[in-house]
Amino acid sequence: MSNIIDLKLFELVEKIKKKEISSTEVTKAFIDRSQKSKKLNSYITENFENALQKAKQFDEKPDFNKKLPGIPLAVKDLFCTKNIRTTAGSKILENFIPTYESTVTQNILNEGGIIIGKLNCDEFAMGSSNETSFFGNVQNPISENLVPGGSSGGSSSALAAKLTPATIGTDTGGSIRQPASFTGTVGLKPTYGSCSRYGIVAFASSLDQAGPMTQNVKDCALMLEVISSYDNKDSTSVDFKRGQYLKDINENIKGKKIGIPKQYRVDGMAKEIEELWKKGMKIIEDNGGEIIEINLPNTNYALPTYYIVAPAEASSNLARYDGVKYGFRSKGENLIDMYEKTRSEGFGDEVKRRIMIGTYVLSSGYYDAYYLKAQKVRRLIKNDFDEAYKKVDAILTPSTPSSAFKIGEKTNDPVSMYLNDIFTVPINLAGLPAISIPAGHDKSGYPLGLQVIGKAFDEQNILNIAYSIEKNINFKNNINDWWIN
Amino acid sequence: MTIDLKTVKHISKLSRISIDDNKAKKLSDDLNSIFKFIEKLEELDTEKIEPLTSIAETNLKLRKDEIKSKNIREDILKNSPEDNKDFFVVPKVVE
Lengths: 485, 95
Description:
Chain A is α/β, with parallel strands linked by helices. Chain A has helices spanning about 10-15, 25-35, 50-60, 105-110, 155-160, 175-185, 215-225, 270-285, 300-315, 335-345, 350-360, 370-390, 415-420, 425-430, 460-475; strands at about 45, 70-75, 115-120, 165-170, 185-190, 210-215, 255-260, 290-295, 395-400, 435-440, 445-455. Chain B has a domain at about 5-40.
């Protein structure tokens, strides 16, 4: 039998159901590899002993009707997990142990999944390289000293290095799709309202969505089926009929109309990315799809809009970290002094920067000029997509304007870091689903991704298109285990 | 629009984040480059556009006002930074 860690998630599920392997064997295999891979710094908190116990319990009394029967999974440390430390990559939550479970992780547990640990991420999911985490940089398994993307950088690193058979991240402006693209893995941001936000440490509530990160498209469909649910604990959760995404996956894209937005041809984009995009278009045409040029005229305004809306919501969401009810507290001479010192010492530089941007754009005298203006432009961006979807079924773009960069390369210039998300941010602003799939390599051998964007609640369609592209591209990740001695 | 040191200090006060003078200069530079970037929105005429406040433009569902979690004082206080069985503790506020 092939190595357990090399099996796909859906294969592991089948083998456990057929009793060819046990949950304990699978759990041990991923824990063993995780223990040999500390150099990657993918984990913030390990839950290994507890996970092995759970696996043993599963094997003693297995339930093979579950979608993730005894499957071990590590998840981004932004999901509150009952009795397992949850830090959001921040010093201010360094010792926070939730007394409740997020809906998304509860869905995983309900389907038989076992949490083996909490994965590193940018502090409060604010970053595109995992370099803002209080718990240190994460290595990309593709090459030493390369960023794994962010903010779900621990997730992408652990997944590509096969420390977990699949994982989940969160995506506010590209935090699932960009790290997936940087590590040669698949990442899907569902439609806003598809996955409950209950128990996810909040960053920007009108943009945040949880989603799967996997080795391939079928695994992605399976994970989406598990985590997507209507939840009355999240007032923005949408009560729609969710698909049987894995069962209904289908590579037939005959007659599908796929839009190509000309505004995504940005200046200075690497030639390899332009070629990759053309390769994607050719695959669609070869398989009976139709390529149609579309217009998304306000694309250039998406990032500036995002950098008003997201910090504004963050400044409000992060007001709760005041050193009183939970989290880190610094000593102060009085109440106000205690607040100010707690927040100054407890938050890192990027988080402080964003809280301050948000506070400023919401402050008296500036609200109309910045925040209200941004909300109006957000409407224009959404209208662009509505207009485009009168002509096409889905949209194809590159996932990122470049491949993964070196650790430290962009830390001194916040704006150049923000530009990483140029192709992903508009989708969050419009609340749409989008999937990034690995589609090629650049000249250094680093992976590059293509993004398929869908209509709201049309996840099955983008999974099918991604599945068709995946089958035709036959992408292979070049990972040589350099971090294991 | 430039964000000078005085403005940085003002925002830091509003944000309840103390900033020392060394960091304030760097922060002012960073904020200026970010605001230069976001001021691109001024190019657009948005006078007749309705702001989009929420992507899920549906009516919020109503539910009965019922108590769902009882006797969770211990849970609520479990993570409080200053140990106390009954209350959250803060520095003295009233003289």
